Amino acid sequence: MPPPLPNIWNIFNLHGSPYWQDPLGDGDVTHPMHLFVGRQQELTQLLQGLFGAGASSSRRAIGGRPGIGKTTLVKQFKARALANGYLTTDSVVPIFADDTNEALFGRVLGAVYDILLANRPQTFQNPAMQAAQVLVRASRERLRGGGVSVLGIGASVSKSVVANAPRDMLLDGPRVLHELMTLVQRSDAQGVLVHINNLENLSDSAIQQAGVILRDLRDPMLMHNGLHVVVVGTMEAVQIAVMSSPQVRTVFSVLPVEPLPLSDVHQLLEERYNFMRLDVNRPAIPPVEPAVHARLYELFRGDVRGILQALNDGVTPNIGLAPAVDTQSGLAASASRPFAFDELRPALQQRYVEQMGTERETAHVNRLATWGTDNPVRPHSQKSLGQLWKVRQSTVSETLAFLVRQGYAMLLPRQGYGATEYALTGRSRLMFG
Description:
By secondary structure, the chain is an alpha/beta fold. It has helices at 40-52, 70-83, 101-119, 127-143, 168-185, 204-216, 218-222, 235-241, 246-249, 262-275, 290-299, 304-315, 341-357, 362-374, 382-389, 393-405, 426-432, and strands at 58-63, 86-87, 93-94, 191-197, 227-233, 253-256, 380-381, 409-411, 421-424.
């Protein structure tokens, strides 16, 4: 691999920004899994549930706020499962807003097929894999807007498997999935682990529809021996999609995931600074003071992805521009000294205000500004926001949906039976003070 090109992060003895927001990945040399920090209790619970299922199936839902590391936790879970004989891959099965039973079943069947092909390529000629190939090919051709000729794909399949219409997926699919799992159970593998994601990117109505689909597909898709499914989303999405229906609720267990403690965030960043060293014989210089981590942690309520984005957005334009003066002694210092929060804030505020200025929904943005200039720290219910904005309930709902979708506001965890409350995100609080 050629040496990295020179860049502004080199003055901190870093070969690039340590503030990436990509999930860690097993085998990813740029974002390696060994940088995983914390979550040992949650990881233990996931592994105990997996191992404890034995030859049966298991289903787990992971719920937590956006940006706190759910996806990275699942990636670590899958890496540990793989090391213990379970078959899985880094891919995920998304749930879409316009999903149907047939479409989701086709993607799950395709995921199982791909997992087997990736981990046990010698099974390709097995009749169960050949039958699955027909349905998976047909499903994927439909996604591209085309059809498929069963006789033209070059596969030797069971005479009873045909795939000319979406309904065929639910006619033949459950039997084919059962045959795939029988193949797994007769092999040296412990089972197959499938990751279903994207719930937190759906509207409430789409999440409700996803719950209906999971209910309808419980027996034909989720209950095959050896198949282990983990569904990930916000806690609110998990409550709607998984916990609303007794048919689904009784076969899933839910793992709530809270934000990493601040000590783990400090450790996470220290691990990254060390990993990103340009000269391994010299220590990396942290680009920011530890107090910056703590201040952003408070502003972003433990949203690690938001913290990392803010660090990158705040440090990058300031490198080489801040006065090279030691803040304690007042003497000249290295240009590579760590930044304080007050040095980063103007750049962050300017960036986020400029981004807000590009929004086309000016009415929603004006209401955001009213909230931010009134009291950016105060949480609000829909009722109190209606009073603040002097608008109807329907307008409050529309504006909140926009603000949450665009990352300006967030839904707070429900406290008992009180009204649902919303708060400004760290991005908004950096704009308004």
